[in-house]
Specification:
This protein has one domain. Helices cover 22% and strands 45% of the residues. The chain contains 5 helices and 8 strands; from the N terminus they run H-E-H-E-H-E-H-H-E-E-E-E-E. It starts with a helix and ends in an 8-residue tail after the last strand.
């Protein structure tokens, strides 16, 4: 689950572009989406670089057959907002890498990825060790803010994780400048 949150948090800052360029991809890898985003950005910056603060709120989470203790812990997570800060350097804004769109999992493909006119809509499917995950993302953006809703569903794999669902919301804004050395 943490890997899913990290993946989604990596994708989201790239939705913070202006509504000028548009990107559309179907049945595409993270690398193919990254290339389309880079091409749409041309020699300029497709996204506004800088320091971003993202507030992630888990709105719902369930897992069939979950032990009562785990369910109680999960209920404590729902509704809690965690804030994360990240730095998007000018270089990353001009040429996003594949990891921004699909993490390190080479077994992920976008059913569709559409970004433009202030809206983003995507569905990504991943498979790993007999488990499948479907992630949907939809939201709005401007050069300095974005709002996104995401849902994830797991199927197959270990009985404990099969059927797990999660819904979350991300509210983010650009909060200043950075050069990438802050994360070192």
């Amino acid at each position: 689950m943490n890997r899913t949150i990290v993946l989604l948090a990596a994708v989201i800052p790239l939705a913070a572009c202006d509504s000028g360029p548009e990107v559309s991809a179907t049945n595409a890898t993270g690398q193919e989406v990254a290339e389309k985003v880079a091409k749409a950005g041309g020699t300029g910056e497709f996204v506004r670089p800088g320091k971003w603060a993202s507030k992630v709120t888990i709105e719902d989470m369930s897992m069939p057959g979950m032990p009562p203790e785990a369910k109680a812990h999960m209920q404590g997570v729902i509704g809690r907002a965690d804030t994360h800060e990240s730095c998007l350097t000018p270089e990353e804004a001009k040429r996003p890498k594949e990891g921004f769109f699909a993490g390190t999992n080479k077994n992920c493909r976008y059913e569709h990825f559409n970004m433009g006119n202030g809206k983003i809509d995507a569905v990504m499917k991943c498979t790993e060790e007999g488990m499948g995950q479907t992630m949907t993302m939809a939201g709005t953006y401007s050069p300095d803010t974005y709002q996104m809703t995401m849902a994830m569903k797991s199927e197959g794999g270990a009985a404990a994780a099969s059927g797990m669902t999660m819904k979350m919301r991300v509210d983010a804004k650009r909060v200043g400048e950075c050069d990438g050395s802050e994360d070192a």
